[in-house]
Amino acid sequence: MRYELDENNGINIFEEGNEIPVIYQPHWPDNTPWADAAEARSWAEIKIAEITDPEAPLAGNSPSEPTFPRPTEEDMRLARLRATGLSVDDLKALLGL
Q1: Nearest-angstrom CA–CA distance, 36 and 7
Q2: Under DSSP, is residue 14 helix (H, G, I), strand (E, B) or coil?
Q3: Does 85 fall in a domain?
Q4: Which of 10, 39, 72, 79 could form a disulfide with 26 if both were Cys (CB 3.0 to 4.6 A apart)?
């Protein structure tokens, strides 16, 4: 993957061999403008690492949180459980446990 900045520091991220960007990020995901080209480049490099390296941290949403840890398998299981709106006891009752 590669990236290019436009004249306003908007980030275009490309897959190799593709001239159409798969990601266009004109500012931080929380809509905060990039402070400068260096900040935009840093976020782009972190985002590419997030996509290409399963161990890399996730690209952040704001300048105050430029990266955050990737969720663990346990975090994902708990998130799926919370999304159901059911408690562990509810699930046990449904399964007859």
Answers
A1: 11
A2: strand
A3: no
A4: 10
Q: How far apart are CA 45 and CA 84, in angstroms?
A: 35
Inter-residue contact 63 to 39 (CB < 8 Å): yes
Q: For 13-23, write each residue's pLDDT tens digit.
A: 999 999 999 99
Instruction: Round to the nearest angstrom and report the end-to-end CA distance of the chain.
Output: 48
Calpha distance 30→35 (Å, rounded): 13
Q: Look at residues 5, 2, 9, 14 and name the one whose alpha carbon lies nearest to residue 45.
A: 2
In-domain check, residue 27 = yes
Count of structural domains, the chain: 1
Is 56 domain-assigned? Answer: yes
The whole model's pTM is what? 0.78
Expressed as residue numbers, the domain containing 53 is: 2-69
- Residue 81 domain-assigned? no
